[in-house]
Amino acid sequence: MNDDDLLRYSRHILLDEFGVDGQQRVSAGRALIVGAGGLGSPVALYLAGAGVGTITLVDDDTVDLTNLQRQLAHTSARIGHLKVASAAQAMREINPCIDVRPIAERADATRLDALVANADVVIDCSDNFATRQAINRACVAHAKPLVAGASIRFDGQLSVFDTRDDACPCYACIFPPEAQFEETRCAVMGVFSPVVGTIGALQAGEALKLLAGMSGTLTAELLIFDGRTTRFDRLRISRDPQCPVCAGARKRRV
Predict the structure, then answer these.
(1) Distance (Å, rounded) from C-alpha 225 to C-alpha 74?
(2) Quick check: 84 pLDDT over 60?
(3) Count of C-beta atoms within a 10 Å radius of residue 166
(4) Given 139, 168, 170, 186, the catalytic residue
(5) Of the candidates 88, 109, 139, which has an alpha carbon nearest to the alpha carbon of residue 246?
(6) Chain segment 156-179, per-residue pLDDT in tens
(7) CATH class of the structural domain 3-253
């Protein structure tokens, strides 16, 4: 790191748990963010500010007026622009020293497989069950840690699924692919904007801890946030030894 880097990241470097070594790992790190909306906005901005070396941002949507209540990477001037381009502009304005790679598409399983393979950490900020399952399958296949968040109305949840740890479940252990879930969308149900900001900021924190090599991540735990009462609950979660996604992959690694 040069003198400008030491100054820019000094408040992280001052942390004993982070330090110069942690910052160097973050600066060399590669993060994949899927979704550039309510969750993806704080994740993208915090990872940019923290100096994550390469950030790939995937989303096929465009900025709409209704997004601006909560998707703080975007502005009124960028309505109609691709969300990944809008977010990338905001990220570069915060930190021109990083490599931001916007991908304006809805990534399918094949594309996700290639993108996840080249990432050190994956942050799921998507808004539908099928995409979450596809991201999880790619993360399991390549043994990459997944930071998964979700929010709707006043409720949010967050967990880290890291199958490099044999005791840690994958997303499909907790939310089986064959389960029938009714898709809920902000456009129909509404969402309290600080909830997505809270969950997104926590996702960014978990991703940075993973990149920096810190302990204390939310592996094997599900964090649930109630924005009505400002209450957090933590639940221990266990892997499913019969999981259709990760059970076979774990056996092949042995």
Answers:
(1) 25
(2) yes
(3) 10
(4) 186
(5) 139
(6) 999 999 999 989 999 999 999 987
(7) alpha beta
